[in-house]
Structures are given as structure tokens and as C-alpha cells.
Design brief:
Helix content is 4%, strand content 48%. It is mainly beta. Strands 1-30-29-28-27 form a five-stranded mixed β-sheet, with no helix packed on it. A four-stranded antiparallel β-sheet has the order 2-37-36-35, with no helix packed on it. A four-stranded antiparallel β-sheet has the order 3-4-5-6, with no helix packed on it. The longest helix is centred in the first third of the chain and has 16 residues, at 30-45.
Length: 441
Amino acid sequence: MMVIDLGEVRDGPLPDEPPPRSRTRPARRPLWTALVALVVAAGLAADGPAPARIASVLPGSPTGQVFFADDLILVVSPVSGPGSPREVVAYPLPEHPTGAAQRPEPRWRTPLPITGDPWRAQTSHGSILFTSSSDDHPIGETTMLDARTGRLGWQLPGAGEVDGAGRLLLADSPYLPDRTVRAVDVVSGRTVWSAPAPDKGVLHHRRPGAVDQVVLAGPDGGVEVRDAATGEVRHRADLGPLDVDAPLQVIGDLLVHVDRRAATMTARDLDGLGRRWSVPLPWAVSYVDDCGALVCAVPESGGGLQAFDATTGALRWTSAESETLVTRWWGGPHRADRLLVLSRRAGPTTFAVLDAATGRQLAQLDAGQLVPPADPGGPFFGLRRTADDRLVVVELDLAVARTRTVDVIPGAAGDCLTGPDLTLVCRRPDRSSFGVWRLPA
């Protein structure tokens, strides 16, 4: 097993690659070597981007939030202070290297009339869709803005997924009575179709990347598979009473559900809802998820991660070293037959890379801060802070279970996220502005 030591980090330890094997060098040109080292050190210590870096600085606020929307960076901040109305300002992604950080002019700015906090921004057909929520309504409302002008289009209750064909599949808050699920035209906000949304869940099937089917399941076990474009019921079945909190998930072309009373996990084909396999479970399962050719079951406590063959249901392996699929949080549970998991080893921030075929642990990463990829196929980045307060950015390559250093950035204080074209955004030390850096490929 390979162990990657990530060192001391102020905001949490982050992955880095082992130092290269040292080689003996001839003791030549000592003065020239010293001068080069001085120049490099001075450049790295400067409070700003290094020469020829593609970077910019965006104004914000201590409570401001940043979102990516195609070629735009959206900064959402209260107008005058906490609790005040919000404004969204759209900036272009930096494209050209400069000696100092660019301070671009906004493409547009507009009020964002929301009652809660924005937590997601999606784009489709020239529109930006903000989803916001509050303590009173955990799934609150969706607000549409024109991506070119910032003009407010429409506002509807509920949160959902863009289906790739100009529709947004919205579901009302589970706390509302008589809740519905509906397909809404992204540009106009017009409802294309709607149906009652059962309490058990509203699930989506994607092919490829776009939602093409909606699965509605109620606690009485009634399940419907509807066409995402028309709302037409394609298949219907009765699974028997379902526990409200028991796992139910669309994995590949399967509907997988756990019966805690019978201690079983059952997979049904979405096409017809016929049973494909059913297997016993020796312990209570917290959730099930997609592991490529496998179905992964994560226990509520103890026992380790279990991986089942998605075609037959046969148990392939159990890992006692892991408890949570980290990549599940970010929409991509596996990369090149590798799984990233949260380890059971002492400490809350220890991660491991497993071989998906066997469950064998390939590497161990003591990481306190991993940055989610901008898209399911994008790279994973980790962050590590140096003693002189710079941010080391490393890329985690799951295919070979190694990391490589990508960049060293001054002037980044945390709260980082990645976007298109290897763009990294972090809050700056003043806590009221954001730095934007284009990482080298």
C-alpha cells in the first residue's frame, strides 16, 4: 500500500505528491545558482500573481458566494449587509496572462430577488437558474436570469435538474402538502407537464448526462417511471410498503431499494420494473450508490463498504477500511476503475483510493480539503497551505492513485471551487474579495 503524507495544513491537510528522488549535482556556478534561487523565492513570495499568470480579482463581501455559469463567474452578495437584498454580478473568466491580477469590468449586475440563500446555479439555453433555500423551506425556489443581460425571467417554487432539452424538472419541497413534480420550459417558465410527487422520492435517470426518465416512488411501494419529455407513464409497479428512510436509488439502468424489515437489497430493471436480483444484507445500510459495474452499499455503522455486481447481485468484495464514497458527493462515484472513499482509520479526514474490481486499497491520503470537480469528468484537486501562507494545488489522479503538484498560489485564503478551463476561485485574505486563477494543464 502506498501512503502519501500531506503534512501540516492550517485549513486542513491536503494531498501532495512525494518529493522526487534526489540526484547528486556537480558543485558548479554557486553564485549563479544562488541568484536564481533568490529570484524564484522573491517571485513566489510576492503578494499577487506571478508574471504571466492568468488571474483576476473580483470584489465581493464577507458573506458573498461565487458560482460558475459557462464563461461567467457570478458573485452573489448582500447589497448593504447580512439579511439585506442580494445582487448578482457577472464577470468574464480571465483569458490572457498579465503581470498583475486583472480587475475586470462586470458584464452585468442585477438584483436577485430570493428569500433564502442560493446554493446552486445551472445553465441551459442561454439561461441561468439559481436554486435557493432557507431554514423554513430547505428546498425553496428557482429563479431564472438571462445569461447575456442578467434580466430576471421567472421565479417558481421547488428545486430540480436541467434535462438537457430546455426543460427543468422541478419538485416542490417535501414539507409542502400536495407537492408536485413538473417539467418547466427553461426560457419561458411554462409548465410542460406535472404529476403528484410522492413522499418517498423523485429520482432521475440520465442517458447520457441528460435526464430522460423520472422515477416517482411512494411509501406504499407504488412506483412509476415517466418519460422526462412528455410525463407519460412508461412503467408502473407495486414494490410493497417502503420505509420512508430506507435507501432507494437509480443506479445505471436499475432501481435499487433496501427492505430493512426483510434485510434485503433488490434491483429492478427500469425498463418494465421486473426484478433482476435480490440479496440479503447482514447489517443496516445507510445508502446505496453507483460504482460503475458495481452497486455499492454503505453501512450505517460497522462492517465496511460492500460492492455487489450490478448484473447479478453477487457480492464482489467488502472493505473494512472505508465508510463513505467521497466521489458520490460530487456526482462521479468512480474514475478509471478507482473509488475514492473516506477511511475508517483514526481521524476524520483520511481518504483512500480503492481498486473497484477487488476493493484493494491502493493509496492513502491524509486530506482535509478536497475541491470538487467542475463537472463529473473533471479532475479532483486538493489544497495544502505552506508555512509562508501560500496555497499548493495538487491534482489527484485516481487512475494511478497518485498526486502531482499543479500550482503554488499566493493570496488565497480558502473557500475554493473549480470551474471551466481549470479555473480556481478562492476567497482572498481580506475575506471580502475573490481571487481567480487559471491553473496550468
